[in-house]
Design a protein that fits this description.
This protein has 8 helices and 7 strands. It has 243 residues and is of the alpha/beta class. Helix 5 (155-165) packs antiparallel against helix 6. The protein is globular and about 65 Å long.
Length: 243
């Protein structure tokens, strides 16, 4: 699994972050926008994308391409297009969901101090790229074994933590810190899903089927969903067609 970094916030700060990642990631490409057809030219590269107007279809495609082995069919050819990527999706943090993604907001704090980077920072960045390459050569075999097994996370977030944590060789403290960073966001996502129409339908089906019913009609489920909504003080209702 290849994690995806999703960036929200002001365009300037997001662009600066994409530039930093471009300095650090081997074989990366900075892309102003993204289309499915671009994959013929850029597959198997680390993609750093600025796409503030991302649509649902493209978000789903990028999410699917975090899974190794998945292909796309383009002009009668099969392309393996899975890759690591980072994408800026605009100011709204509630915009499209992308599978296996870590979401960060780069909006600067109002009281954030602004200053000039210390002398030597740019030289250190240049050297860091070489250090990362050496780290990869020395530890790739161990990383591929994916021996880090985090606990207390949902399956999707667990996959992200396992992929990232396995790259932290001989550093259990950093691995624990990684899990502590991902855990609050994981709980937030679970809470958000509990209020979705899909979650309500599942809850209603479980309640209705507890009596041993072998089949349920959409109309029955809609009645139970609307009862749950009313009990929670919600005014909205779900139609049988929506169910």
């Amino acid at each position: 699994m290849l994690p995806c970094l999703v960036i929200t916030g002001p365009a300037h700060e997001a662009t600066e972050l994409l530039r930093v990642l471009h300095d650090l990631c081997s074989g990366s490409l900075l892309l102003a926008g993204f289309r499915r057809g671009d994959l013929q030219e850029v597959y198997r590269r680390t993609l750093l994308i600025s796409e503030p107007n991302l649509n649902n279809q493209t978000a789903a495609l990028l999410g699917n391409l975090t899974n190794r082995g998945f292909m796309i069919v383009e002009q009668r050819s099969y392309l393996y297009c899975h890759s690591s990527k980072a994408i800026y999706i605009g100011d709204d943090p509630k915009i499209k969901r992308i599978q296996h993604a870590i979401y960060i907001d780069v909006t600067p704090a109002l009281n954030a101090a602004k200053g000039i980077p210390p002398e030597g920072v740019h030289q250190n960045i240049e050297h860091l790229t070489g250090h990362l390459a050496k780290y990869r050569e020395s530890n790739l075999a161990q990383v591929r074994r994916l021996e880090f097994n985090p606990t207390g996370l949902s399956p999707e977030t667990n996959a992200v933590a396992k992929a990232l944590g396995s790259c932290l060789v001989d550093s259990p403290d950093l691995q624990a810190a990684l899990v502590s960073i991902l855990a609050p966001r994981d709980q937030q996502r679970i809470s958000e899903r509990l209020d979705t129409a899909e979650a309500l339908v599942i809850e209603a089906v479980l309640a209705l089927s507890s009596g041993g019913a072998e089949q349920l009609y959409a109309k029955e489920i809609a009645v139970e969903v609307n009862r749950l909504l009313e009990a929670r003080g919600e005014r909205s209702k779900l139609s049988p067609e929506k169910v």
